[in-house]
Amino acid sequence: MIKFKINLKKLISALLCLSLTLILMAGCGRSEEGIPKGTAIYYLTKNQDTIVPRSYELTATDSIGQIEELLGKLSETPDDVELHRVLGEEIKVTGMELHGNQLSLTFNEEYLKLDLMKEVLTRAAVVETLTSIPEVLRVTFYVEGEPLTDARGNTIGAMTGDTFVLNPGEQINSFQEAVITLYFSNLEGDGLVMETQQVHYSSNISMEKLIIERLLAGPLSQNAKSAIPAGTQLLSVTTADDVCYVNFDDAFKNQDYEVQEAVVIYSIVDSLLTLNDIKKVQISVNGDNSTTYRDKFSLSTQYEKDLSLVEGE
């Protein structure tokens, strides 16, 4: 049984989101194919270069007991010889505190000795495992009472199950870091709110795809929301001759009149045009761009940047 003590100095005032593409070599998906629904434990693979989920049935009935149970499992050597435990003998969880739906974990100083890839995979495995508990929506890491920071000294902050972009079947080649600018709908649906996010991602995922996935996931701030209709899936995104072609499924045509149609279009266009190699954006639905989005916006049009809807511009 792991013993915990409270050893936290402060709550994080800003939430930063890290997006990391991880290969999932086995199991099944949260909403994606391959990630288990319900409680799951994420293990390192034998080579410790990826993480994989395994379904797990909790025995504890209260949230604190469930957290302790899963952390204990992450510290145990799995029965499967192809898997490796996430928390080794040296790395210890020395404290925890649950505030509403946000869980804060404190690790000993050995955590800081992890190399970049191992640290990101360890953090992803812990967060994905613990957020499979319904009562835990966000997880914050501390080391010896201080907030965990990245290599540049930036506070990592609270992470959710959506912080790590899980792409089953895609191989990790290398990690990259970037700060991206996104435009979300304001709460009234009649304007755009600019938000910057610091992201870590695999070289396998294009920046265009990363931006659309973050737009679909929604903002970190409380004064904005995703402009794209709920349930929309990205089918493809490609760029050629300075034009980015974004292809959504039929759910994109769902009528959400709480968000003006111009806000939907320019949330996508203005976010993508923050990339230097894109000058215009064309949107299609199931590969068809011969229709009109709602009443005014022809999908045959290649749209250019328009920041007139952005609050504060």
Layout of strands and helices, then pairs:
Blueprint: E1 40-45, E2 51-55, H1 63-75, E3 83-84, E4 93-99, E5 102-107, H2 116-130, E6 138-143, E7 146-147, E8 175-186, E9 192-202, H3 207-217, E10 224-225, E11 234-240, E12 243-248, H4 261-272, E13 280-285, E14 292-293, E15 297-298
Parallel strand pairs: 5-6, 12-13
Antiparallel strand pairs: 1-2, 1-3, 4-5, 6-7, 8-9, 8-10, 11-12, 14-15
Helix pairs in contact: 3-4
Short description:
The chain contains 4 helices and 15 strands. The protein folds into 2 domains: 1-172, no CATH class; 175-298, no CATH class.
Brief descriptors of the model:
disordered N terminus; four-stranded mixed sheet; alpha+beta; elongated; three-stranded antiparallel sheet
Written description of the protein model:
The chain has four helices and 15 strands. The protein is α+β, with helices and mostly antiparallel strands. The strands form five sheets. It has a four-stranded mixed beta sheet, with helices on one face. The protein has a three-stranded antiparallel beta sheet with strand order 2-1-3. Helix 3 runs antiparallel to helix 4 (about 260-270).
DSSP strand content: 25-35%
Number of strands: 15
Radius of gyration, in Å, reads 21 Å
Helix content: 10-25%
User: Major sheet: order of its strands?
Assistant: 4-5-6-7
Number of H/I helices: 4
Element order: H for helix, E for strand:
EEHEEEHEEEEHEEEHEEE
Assign an overall shape: elongated
Q: Which parts are unreliable, with pLDDT below 50 for 5 consecutive residues or more?
A: 1-34, 167-173
| CA-CA gap between termini | 55 Å
**How many individual domains?**
2
- Average pLDDT reading: 82
Label the structural class: alpha+beta
Largest sheet: 4 strands, mixed
Oligomer status = single chain
